[in-house]
Amino acid sequence: MTSPFEELLPSTRRALLHRVATAQSEGRAPSFVGAVARDGHTVWSGGRSCVDGHEPDADTQYRIGSITKCFTAVLVLRLRDEGLLDLADPLEKHLPGTGVGEVTIAQLLGHGAGLAAEAPAPWWERTPGTTRPELADVLGEDPVLHPAGRLYHYSNPGYTLLGSLIETLRGASWEEVLRREILEPLSMHRTTTQPVAPAAGGWAVHPWADAILPEPAEDLGLMAPAGQLWSTADDLCRFGAFLAGGDDRVLSAASVQEARTPATPPESGQWGGGYGLGVQLVHGGGRTYAGHTGSLPGFVAALWVSVEDGLVAVALANATSGPLTGTVAAELINIVAEAEPRIPEPWRPLPEVDQSLLELTGPWYWGATPYVLRLTADRGLDFAPLRDAGRRSRFAARPDGTWKGLDGYYTGETLKAVRRPDGRVSHLDLGSFVYTREPYEPGDAVPGGVDEQGWRGL
Asked: Origin, by domain of life (predicted)?
């Protein structure tokens, strides 16, 4: 199946189908669906099944487990962007009486609050949500295991708290807020809290025999914001495109980029990835993948986005374990990116050039280390070492004539051009560091001054 927007090459389509077929066969999944979107449109999908003639397609629902957390996080960020909360707020400010102390909303989003990984027994994924009718039943007697903000510790109950926060501030159920604020604007009509046909059934596959056992599909109740949703490959491709570029009807590109930015240090030994605000991050093979994996009894799922490649990949299977959907989704991206790399947009000059900014471009020196300043769109600046080593950051213009760091070491820091009385630029001040036009030029504003004898030989 392909999209009318852009055909993939037959060899690429075959490679994608081969990867999904191999995943279904070697992972011993009753069924498996994969899909790829490029620049916002699904360009390929394919499915395999153990039942001849019943291959699932991109409109078949699977349970997506913890991919649900991405949706919950978006709803929280919307509340922040509307000024109804601050991510630094303690949860207790908006949802008192939980007993989790001073953990912040940001810490909950990034799994840095130190809460327990799971709800108390019985196993919450295989028992009805009615077993845990109150937050106290989800959290248990001792919900905080680690000092808040000290380490990454994945917590499903943490997202239950975020779901309750959303309900409190919106005055509506998490499900209703989700439908109104994300699913409807993004046309995700096949993403629901309960299965709607066509939907795959969940199965466990015997580890040592080719036999299967049906898994229960419980309504998770208060735990729903951590893993309730059912969705399709098509819908998740739409959501992946949103995670890559934002959508002002739901969340701005800047806030989505914030969600994709690491918020909590990874666990010891897990330096190949991290976690943003409701978004998993994985680095491998020269690429960064943002999205989430998910599992519930009978299902495993993965959604990955490579922003640089303009690609989204989805992998869904109806088996409790076996298929490595996270690996498969990443490999689907790799197949397309390597066989049909993204064609860059044509270079075009800026629509207009501010001469006062043009004056700032070119080489600058921090001590004797050369940097170069380049002018970008919207009066922005790119500041980078002339050689490979060093700190690089992009800067956005502020109304007062300074610039704010957007990424890298200087995120949030202020860059300003300091001028002499005659209006000419003396130097750049970046977080108190001074950059001059020449390395240690006598008469320049070099902290500590310059030796009177200047540069010399040995």
From this structure: Bacteria
Contact 211, 35 (CB under 8 A): no
Task: Please tell me the distance from the alpha carbon of residue 134 to that of residue 219, in angstroms, as a whole number.
Answer: 15
Alpha-carbon span 45 to 313, nearest angstrom = 9
DSSP 188-246: -TT-BSS--SSBPPPEEE-SSSS-EEEPP----GGGHHHH--EE-HHHHHHHHHHHHH-
Residue with tokens 């070491």: 409
- The structural domains of the chain, with segments of one domain joined by +, span 10-339, 355-435
Residue 67 near residue 303 (C-beta atoms within 8 A) = yes
Predicted confidence (pLDDT) per residue in 258-278, tens digit: 999 988 776 666 666 789 999
Q: What is the pTM of this model?
A: 0.89
User: Which residues make beta-bridge pairs with 36?
Assistant: 44, 313
Instruction: For residues 153 and 116, give the distance between their C-alpha atoms in angstroms, rounded to a whole number.
Output: 8
On the 0-12 / 13-18 / 19+ scale of CB atoms within 10 A, 109 is buried
Identify whether the C-beta of residue 50 lies closer than 8 Å to the C-beta of residue 200: no
Find the helix packing angle between 156-170 and 68-81, rounded to 10°: 40
What tokens were used for 8?
């993939």
Q: Looking at per-residue confidence, does 52 or 64 come out higher?
A: 64
For the stretch 279-315, pLDDT in tens is: 999 998 889 999 999 999 999 999 999 999 999 999 9
Instruction: Kindly report the number of other CB atoms within 10 A of residue 457's CB atom.
Output: 3
The tokens of 57 are what? 């397609």
What single-letter DSSP state applies at residue 432? T
Write down the CATH superfamily of domain 10-339.
DD-peptidase/beta-lactamase superfamily (3.40.710.10)
Residues 358-391 as b/e (b if ≥16 CB within 10 A, e otherwise) read eebeeebbbeeeebebeeeeebbbebbeeeeeeb
For residue 269, what pLDDT is reported? 62
